[in-house]
Every structure is written in C-alpha cells, then in structure tokens.
Write a structure and sequence with these properties.
Blueprint lengths: L60 E2 L8 E6 L5 H9 L3 E7 L2 H13 L6 E5 L2 H4 L3 E2 L6 E5 L17 H10 L5 E6 L2 H13 L3 E3 L8 E2 L9 H8 L5 E7 L1
Parallel strand pairs: 1-5, 2-3, 2-6, 3-4, 6-7
Antiparallel strand pairs: 7-10, 8-10, 9-10
The chain binds S-adenosylmethionine (SAM).
C-alpha cells in the first residue's frame, strides 16, 4: 500500500445532503437524503452544518490524497464517531475515512478529529455512502471497511435506504485488495443473519470469523468500539459480529 501524502485542507461545501435537524444518529427516523451533487435550493437560508466537509468534486477521487497513513480504512456511518477516535488511537499508522449521511454528525465528528490533532489521518465526510463509494478509488485502496450497527430502519418503505445491498457489496469489494477485510456488526440477530446470507452468497467475499467456514466472531478484534457497540455492551445486549475477506 503506497504511503499517502499529507492530505489537502478540508473540503467544505454546501449540500450534497440535506441538513440533519435531529440529534438522533440511530436513524429511527430515516434521514432526508438529497441525491449527491444536488445544489441547495436557490435563495434558501444557510442551515446549520451546511459547511460540513464533503468529498472533493469529481467522479474519481484518489482516497490516498484525503488522509495520510500507511494503509487506509473506511467506516460507513460512523454516527457519533466513537469508533473513529478509538481506532485512530489504536492504529496510529492507519488513515481512516468515514462517510456519514447525517450532516450534523459528520460535521461534529470531523471537527473533533481536527481539534484533537487527528485530522491529517482521520476525516469524516458528509456523504451518502451509496453515492460516494463509486467515486472513491483506486480499486483496492482500502485495507478494511467497517459497518457498525447499520440500517436501523424496519419499515418496508425504507428498504431502499438500507446500506447493505448489492451496490454496497460490489463497491466495497472493488475498494478492498485481495485479503482486505469487511467487518459488520449489529445487535439485531435477524439483520445479522440477512447480512451473513448476502455476503456468504457474494462471489467477492469469503468468511473469516473465529471458526473456519463461518464469518461469526465473538469479539471485535480492532481495539475500538462504536458508540452503539458500547451501548449494547452496557445494556447487556448481544452483539453479532462478522468478518469477511475479499477473495
Ligand atoms: C444505527 S447508527 C450507528 C452509528 C455508529 N455506526 C455506531 O455503531 O454507533 C447508523 C448510522 O449509519 C448512518 N447511515 C445510514 N445510511 C447511510 C448511508 N447511506 N451513508 C452514510 N451513512 C449512513 C446513519 O446516519 C447513522 O449514523
């Protein structure tokens, strides 16, 4: 993995996403997501977090120019960002990119990373991952991808919002090198079973859990926990963890 150079200054812009008016990162309410690249309505008032960092413009973004690091890791939906902070401490040689659809939390977490002096190697962009992933490259540039407690939507009409789908799987597979890791965890066993089935059927991934032939893991091996993971553990809820490697 080539060494990334010092990243450029933060890219801030007005919206690819609608501003997030709520504090809820758990997504019980589906976020109001505008298509990537959609300009804010003309004449509308500036909204809070309009200046959240977004990815640079263009269809082909070299992820290695965004953060410095000996290798790159990707978190989709970091929410309040706990995993980004803990992982940046645990893996000081890694560069970490977060894509968070909720503009408010993307802006807050990104600002905190910068304030803590981690901004050269850990950034969160206010992006819908399903729009942003196809723009990221080069192929095989991320060593790991994390999806912690995604898809907290249960109504049929929200099915189209689910992150874990064919497009996500194909894009993550493209961005990982052979042997690169996809780690997924949730506290909802039905969801875990769905993810497991999808990924086991994918030609791109092989299970890489505790026991050969299974993706399931008892512990999170990354020395960093997401906020929902901390909460589930504190509440005594089981966490269903899975790891796959790119074939
Ligand atoms: C249940 S929360 C979990 C937050 C965090 N991963 C954790 O474990 O604490 C799901 C997160 O995924 C984000 N999210 C959902 N769909 C997304 C998408 N298409 N692109 C980026 N982030 C997304 C939500 O905004 C929310 O922050």
């Amino acid at each position: 993995m080539p060494q990334s150079s010092t990243p450029p200054a933060p890219v801030s812009s007005s919206s690819q996403l609608d501003a997030d008016a709520t504090d809820d990162v758990d997504g019980a309410q589906a976020p109001n997501i505008a298509p990537a690249g959609e300009a804010p309505a003309r004449g509308r008032q500036k909204r809070p977090y309009d200046d959240a960092a977004v990815l640079p413009p263009g269809d082909t973004i070299d992820a290695r120019t965004l953060v410095a690091g000996e290798w790159l890791e990707l978190e989709v939906g970091p929410g309040r960002g706990g995993f980004m902070f803990e992982r940046a401490e645990a893996a000081p040689r890694a560069g970490i990119i977060g894509l968070e659809v909720r503009r408010k939390w993307a802006a807050i977490v990104d600002g905190r990373l910068i304030k803590r002096g981690l901004g050269n190697r850990a950034r969160v962009y206010a992006e819908d991952a399903l729009h942003a992933l196809p723009r990221l490259g080069p192929d095989g540039s991320f060593q790991r991808a994390y999806l912690h407690f995604p898809d907290p939507w249960w109504k049929k009409r929200h099915t189209k919002r689910l992150v874990m789908g064919d497009k996500f799987i194909d894009e993550i597979a493209r961005l990982l090198p052979q042997g690169g890791e996809l780690y997924v965890q949730t506290d909802v066993e039905e969801r875990a079973a769905e993810y497991e089935e999808r990924l086991m059927q994918s030609p791109h991934f092989a299970p890489a859990g505790d026991v050969q032939g299974s993706p399931r893991m008892v512990e999170n091996p990354y020395n960093a926990r997401s906020p929902r993971e901390h909460r589930a553990i504190a509440d005594g809820l089981p966490v269903h963890r899975m790891r796959f490697t790119k074939r």
